[in-house]
Design goal:
Its EC number is 3.6.5.4. This protein has about 450 residues and is α/β, with parallel strands linked by helices. The chain has 21 helices and eight strands. About 55% of the residues lie in helices and about 10% in strands. It has an eight-stranded mixed beta sheet, with helices on both faces. Helix 8 runs parallel beside helix 9. The structure holds guanosine-5'-diphosphate.
Length: about 450
């Protein structure tokens, strides 16, 4: 999970001050000393830490906080607001050109995740914003970069424009935009070449592409796990190229958070997206406030809801709701639901977005047994169509066969049948509720 180390330390510190009926300047000073250490340990830029501590201290010892009825909570509120501010305040938007296509240049050093992120961004633009992007393979130097983008394109079923590695990136970009106009693509995502280090040739080439394509966005892709190096890379790229945003990748493995907390302040460039895994749907819009909330253990329910909405097919959800209403929900529907939940990502990551989840005993090293879900799926798949639709026909002979077919025990088959029965009962109760109470119900 992102920011585990920092979150643990900050939450420990906040815990101490939360319940205090009275807070004085010395308390604030002590707390800020711990916050300062926690941030430095998280590899946050030292000047950023210094400014942050100064701002929070000033506000926290201010009249309205210490004299309030809940000073402890007020101090935490100040910390949260300033953390949010540190990461950019408001969520920043992605450009939409009035004269399509909107051109986005993806830049970055090798290995940062640029090609992967280009694919993820195209996927997100289509899934969440209903756009029709064209991917452009302009990294002609890294062996296999073009192939990699083409493979990703196939995986997400999206077109990739390429002219091989013998044509200059500028020419590739130029022809890609012509093609995008012809085929009515509203976004063009150019995967430019990376290098191991920043060098003049690279910058010159990027400047040429910028000059020619007049991009609406220039996104720098950096690896969050490289901490202050990422911040330095962002600073150089910004000085030379003028970035419009940063995509921070590998946040899923970044326990510290130094880059995430420093980039905005040091480079004055907003973080627009964060990479949370290797899969094509592991890219999230960056919301400073939600991130601050996660760091302070207050959960991130909004992101959880959005994930659910993105992964649930609306037509299927409607159909399912009807089935629930008429109590004709079958094991096949159940299987489908399980699949959709799985699509949302690892279950333990989802759980961690619930407020206070990391405070529940044992939750910090909890890992949900995803195998269990696999077992349930195996049992259902061993049923005949008739059994799936009318589980009441499943007698002991059939149970034995299902258990054998799925490699599970009869007890497990029994348990699943019982759970399914209970679920249907609940649905019936729900269906019988007065109309008004059903309002606002959404399928998970
Ligand atoms: P490029 O050289 O910058 O184009 O880098 P690639 O796109 O080839 O990515 C390098 C490696 O980082 C690949 O193995 C990716 O799967 C991995 N990667 C990219 N983004 C993420 C992320 O957000 N989380 C994790 N865990 N891995 C990522």
């Amino acid at each position: 999970m992102a920011f585990e180390g920092l979150a643990d330390r900050l939450q420990g510190t906040m815990q101490k001050i939360r319940g205090k009926g009275k807070v004085n300047e010395a308390d604030v000073k002590e707390m800020m000393r711990e916050v300062r250490l926690a941030l430095l340990e998280a590899d946050v830029n030292f000047k950023v830490v210094k400014d942050f501590v100064k701002r929070v201290s000033e506000r926290a010892v201010g009249q309205e906080v210490l004299k309030s009825l809940t000073p402890g909570q007020q101090v935490i509120k100040v910390v949260k607001e300033e953390l949010t501010e540190l990461m950019g305040g408001e969520q920043s938007k992605i450009a939409v050109s009035t004269r399509p296509p909107t051109v986005i240049m993806m830049v970055g050093l090798q290995g940062a995740g640029k090609t992967t992120t280009t694919g993820k961004l195209a996927n997100l633009l289509r899934k969440k914003y209903n756009r029709k992007p064209l991917l452009v393979a302009a990294d002609i130097y890294r062996p296999a970069a073009i192939k990699q983008l083409e493979t990703l394109g196939k995986q997400i079923n999206m077109p990739v424009f390429s002219l091989g590695d013998q044509v200059s990136p500028v020419e590739i970009a130029k022809q890609a935009i012509v093609k995008a106009k012809e085929e009515h693509h509203d976004y063009v995502l150019i995967d430019t070449a990376g290098r191991l280090h920043i060098d003049e040739n690279l910058m010159d080439e990027l400047k040429d592409i910028k000059e020619l394509t007049k991009p609406d966005e220039i996104f720098l892709v950096v690896d969050a796990m490289t901490g202050q190096d990422a911040v330095n890379v962002a600073q150089s790229f910004n000085e030379q190229l003028g970035l419009t945003g940063v995509v921070l990748t590998k946040l899923d493995g970044d326990t510290r958070g130094g880059a995430a907390l420093s980039i905005r302040s040091v480079t004055n460039t907003p973080i627009k997206f964060v990479g949370m895994g290797e899969k094509m749907d592991a890219l999230e819009a960056f919301h400073p406030e939600r991130m601050a909330s996660r760091i302070l253990g207050m959960g991130d329910v909004l992101t959880l809801i959005e994930k659910a909405q993105m992964n649930v097919d609306e037509d299927k959800a409607k159909e399912l709701e009807k089935k629930m209403r008429t109590a004709s929900f079958t094991f096949d529907d159940f299987l489908e639901q399980l699949g959709q939940v799985r699509n949302m990502g690892p279950l333990d990551d989802l759980l961690k977005m619930l407020p206070g989840a990391n405070k529940i005993k044992g939750m910090d090293n909890l890992s949900i047994d995803e195998k269990q879900i696999g077992h349930v799926e195996a049992i259902i798949r061993s049923m005949t169509l008739q059994e799936k639709e009318h589980p009441e026909v499943i007698n002991s002979g059939r149970k034995k066969r299902i258990a054998k077919g799925s490699g599970r025990s009869i007890q497990e088959v029994n348990r699943l049948l019982k759970q399914f029965e209970d679920m249907k009962k609940m649905m019936k109760q729900f269906t019988n509720m007065p109309k008004g109470k059903k309002k606002g119900f959404k399928l998970p």
